[in-house]
Specification:
The protein is of the alpha+beta class. It contains 18 helices and 20 strands. A five-stranded antiparallel beta sheet has the order 4-5-6-7-8, with helices on one face. The protein has a three-stranded antiparallel beta sheet with strand order 3-2-11, covered by helices on one side. The N and C termini lie far apart (109 Å).
């Protein structure tokens, strides 16, 4: 049970925007924030600090260019991981199964956690909308379940709320023992702006009780220390017999949960103290070093590519610069004959770039900026005419391509290593030349990873249901009567249409069981037409309603002929109708869709009854069976006996001239 001494240090130091001293914070507080900020920096849009380093022999303009053109090409990495977690919810074996109960529906746990539970919808929708992203971004965040507002009377059930407390607001957390959490909600203090409240709301929890402290004021005492006023849940005034206030008592409310209703959402626990303080890392933590290396290589690739696109230009020059005083592209400024500035007559006091040749030392009609000039002024003929050198008058200096290739290879390797750490390496390639078995093997590692993470996420969800149930119904003594069972998925679908098509063809070629073939056909239709298409719905309806689903058309015709041997029998009459229903199934569904636009919204029973009703209209009375002989009422004409003579000997012309059949 919480005591007031547990709260007092945090109430004294946690006023306003202040954070308590390090002794009141859990051991991994700073490390948790650093890990979250690292993930945010790696996948953010801003230029990361770890790239703001000088490369060997790098010019300042190149470093500036890298920063200006930076684009985070790994931005989608985290999004892919978060999206992959949606497979858990989309798995066909993920389900929340509710027990039957005699509690009124309006007050039941299922109704409370239904569509009106949160702005996002029901508890499942809230859970995957909030926990899924923080599970990757901030594994040291805490899932908290508490009734923030107390019921007005004992006749009302408490209304627990769920929230995610980010790691910077988790001041103290000892699993199952004690926690101090800062609410995202703020209170309005007397001097606050209505749009910017600054008062803290603190949650205190232990294994069997909780309280909420809301800051109501902030002042400064005579010693210059800040003093906060708090409204604390569970504090009661004590009065004597005359009604005078004699003191206060602290009786925190119970939460009735089996353990503290707060839990860190991470899975990979890296460190833990004997006091129960924990540190978790994100499931993408192992990929961060490879991503940082890949970002460095990509930044170098951008600069190296520009070296190839805009390589150094050179030109041949046949004359030196004619600017007076220009020597090698520079002009020396000398002191006067008296040496008035340097004390030495004619001494060089300054060196300036030649404005005519721009520092090249050669004469050229074009710009000399960033152009290398090759001296071709030697070798004059006796007539003082310069020899024009053979070859091109200018060009560009080729830069070796090996450095760029090295950067590209390293970048690819870093990308592959990053995805390999989370078992998603198959995403980086499109293996057209690999078999279906090989592609499925590539996905097996990710499948196992998703199953492990799925079990953990489902466990968190079950924990949430347990806490809501305990806080809402624990006081009434009806604990765990309505608690649902959340089924962890194990059949996760990571395949695509191409793999499904190969599996379907393989199943048909090897004559697998029809039920397995139907499962592949259903999946293929789902990829091709979508879950809401008429084709997909018709196929699903057929698997549920067709009485002869696995029977071939030829066998159905044979069965129909046998049934018509005695069509007046009630049993055969029913069998004939069922066979015709199977034969005409697609046409009957098409007729029903044409006449009733809401056919797909009906229940399965109503859909089946409607198809059967339409099928019976197509089966008329049969007075004579298919096997009847004689008369003119048979379904088939009566054939006369057929006689055949012995085989013909072609060497006997008399036989070949005779009629073979009578």
């Amino acid at each position: 049970m919480l005591s007031f001494q547990d709260l007092l240090p945090y109430l004294q130091q946690g006023a306003g925007r202040n954070r308590p001293g390090s002794k009141l914070l859990h051991k991994f507080y700073a490390k948790s924030i650093a890990h979250r900020d690292e993930i945010e920096q790696v996948f953010g849009d801003a230029y990361p600090k770890y790239l703001d380093k000088d490369r060997p022999r790098e010019l300042p303009e190149h470093k500036k260019y890298r920063k200006e053109v930076y684009e985070n090409i790994f931005r989608g990495f985290k999004s892919r991981v978060i999206s992959a977690l949606d497979y858990i919810r989309q798995a066909d074996d993920f389900d929340v199964q509710w027990p039957t109960t005699d509690i009124q529906e309006a007050d039941s746990l299922q109704t409370y956690t239904g569509k009106g539970f949160s702005p996002e919808g029901d508890f499942v929708e809230w859970f995957f909308s909030n926990v899924k992203s923080d599970y990757v971004d901030d594994p040291n965040a805490v899932l908290l379940i508490l009734p923030v507002e107390q019921p007005l009377s004992d006749a009302e059930y408490p209304r627990p709320q769920t929230m995610i407390i980010p790691c910077q607001d988790v001041w103290m957390f000892r699993r199952g023992k004690f926690a101090v959490l800062v609410s995202p909600e703020k209170t309005l203090l007397p001097n606050d702006s209505p749009d910017e409240p600054t008062g803290n709301v603190l949650f205190f929890l232990d294994h069997d009780s909780y309280t909420i402290a809301r800051q109501t004021g902030l002042s400064t005492n005579q010693n210059g220390q800040r003093v906060a006023d708090w409204q604390i849940l569970g504090v009661e005034n004590l009065f004597d017999a005359e009604g005078k206030l004699v003191g206060q008592a602290f009786n925190p409310p119970r939460h009735y949960c089996a353990t503290m209703p707060a839990r860190k959402i991470g899975l990979k626990r890296i460190k833990k103290t004997t006091k129960g303080e924990e540190y978790y890392e994100s499931l993408i933590a192992d990929a961060l070093p490879h991503i940082r290396l890949g970002q460095r290589n990509q930044s170098d690739i951008q600069v190296e590519t520009n070296f190839h696109v805009a390589s150094k230009e050179w030109r041949r020059s046949t004359s030196k610069c004619k600017q007076p005083g220009c020597v090698g592209g520079v002009i020396h400024i000398r002191d006067d004959v008296k040496g008035s500035k340097s004390g030495e007559p004619g001494a060089i006091i300054d060196v300036r770039e030649c404005p005519t040749c721009k520092g090249t030392g050669f004469h050229d009609t074009g710009s000399g900026l960033n152009i290398m000039y090759i001296d071709a002024t030697g070798g004059n003929t006796p007539g003082e005419m310069p020899n024009v050198p053979s070859g091109d008058p200018g060009g560009f200096i080729k830069r070796p391509i090996e450095s760029l290739k090295t950067f590209v290879e390293e970048f690819k390797r870093n990308c592959e290593e990053a995805y390999t750490t989370i078992d998603m390496q198959f995403i980086r390639k499109t293996p057209y030349d690999e078999s279906g078995a090989s592609k499925r093997y590539d996905r097996q590692e990710m499948l196992r990873t998703l199953v492990v993470n799925g079990v953990h996420i489902v466990d968190l969800m079950s924990f949430g249901y347990e806490c809501i149930d305990a806080q809402r119904f624990g006081a009434s003594g009806r604990l765990r009567e309505q608690l649902p069972e959340v089924l962890a998925p194990v059949r996760l679908d990571l395949e695509n249409a191409e793999l499904t098509r190969e599996e379907l063809n393989n199943a048909k070629d090897k004559k697998y069981d029809p039920t397995l073939v139907q499962a592949y056909e259903k999946k293929m239709l789902l990829y091709t037409t979508g879950e809401q298409s008429d084709e997909y719905r018709r196929y699903v309806l057929r698997t549920q309603c067709d009485p002869y689903l696995d029977v071939t058309e030829e066998m159905k015709a044979y069965m129909l002929g046998v049934a018509f041997r005695n069509p007046d029998s009630p049993e055969n009459r029913t069998k004939i109708e069922r066979i015709y229903l199977s034969l005409d199934f697609d046409g009957l569904v098409a007729d029903a869709l044409r006449d009733d636009a809401d056919f797909w919204q009906k229940s399965l029973t109503d859909q089946y009854n409607e198809i059967v009703r339409r099928g019976k209209l197509l089966v008329g009375p049969q007075t004579v069976g298919l096997a009847a002989t004689g008369g003119t009422g048979g379904a088939f004409p009566t054939l006369e006996p057929l006689n055949m003579k012995p085989p013909v000997d072609v060497q006997q012309t008399q036989q070949t001239q005779q009629q073979q059949f009578n």
